[in-house]
Amino acid sequence: MQDIKVLPTQSDTPSQVPAEMKAFLQGILDEADILILDDVEKEAVIQNMYFQLDAFLLEQVIAALPDEKIEEFSTLSEEEGSVEKVQAFIESALPNAKEIFEKAYEEFRQWYLDTIAIEEAKSDAFDEQMQSSDEHVSLKTLANGQPASTQ
Asked: Is the dihedral of CA 30, 31, 35, 41 positive or negative?
């Protein structure tokens, strides 16, 4: 995996999503084969994914940090413009930081794809249920001697 900005910040705007991160998120969207209508919607989806990834990475870092380092990490994370300091801190506190992030990126990718698959399955099941319900109503209506079109 290429070097990627370790932790995005909540103050970043859509235009500030790092190119490497945007490419990673776009790759997930491409793999999920989601229909996105236009560039505005695409940017909104990528921005949303970016903030989800931010929260996920933060969770993974906190889980991997020794307890005595969490407060220092939290303080550094809250400082404005401290991305480089946070990255340096993580690298010094977690000798296996690269592996942790590689695993976290893959887990996020899989979680996102699984979530999309679940939502598609729910949507398909709902569509089938509605179609079945419509057919049931039509058959019931016909059985009662009424034209189906009056329902």
From this structure: negative
Tens-digit pLDDT string for the chain (151 aa) = 444 445 544 444 445 888 999 999 999 999 988 888 899 999 999 999 999 999 999 999 999 999 999 999 989 888 876 788 899 999 999 999 999 999 999 999 999 999 887 877 777 677 677 776 655 555 556 566 666 554 4
Residue 44 domain-assigned? yes
Report whether 58 contacts 49 (CB < 8 A).
no
How many other CB atoms are there within 10 angstroms of residue 30's CB atom?
Answer: 9
Q: Does some domain include residue 91?
A: yes
- By CB neighbour count within 10 A (0-12 exposed, 13-18 middle, 19+ buried), where does 49 fall? buried
- Residue located via tokens 């794809």: 113
Supply the pTM of this predicted model. Answer: 0.69
Asked whether residue 143 is assigned to any structural domain, the reply reads no
Domain for residue 112, yes or no?
Answer: yes
Count of domains forming the chain: 1
Cα angle 85, 107, 3 (rounded to 5 degrees) comes to 40
- Domain extent, residue 59, equals 14-125
